[in-house]
Amino acid sequence: MDRVEDYADSVKSALSIDKRGCCLRLVEGDIDGIAELGAQISSLFKAISTKPSNVHLLVDFGQKVPQKATLPFLIDALPFISEWRTFTIACSSFPADMSDVKKNSIRELEREEWAAWLSLLSKSNVKRMPTYGDYGINHPILSDFNPFTMSMSVNIRYTDTLNYVLAKGQAQPRKKWADTPEKLKIRAQLAPGVQYPKLAVALKKHPAWKGKSFSWGDGFIDKCSHKECVGSATDWRAVGMNHHIVLVVQQIANLP
Question: pTM of the predicted model, to two decimals?
Answer without folding.
Answer: 0.90
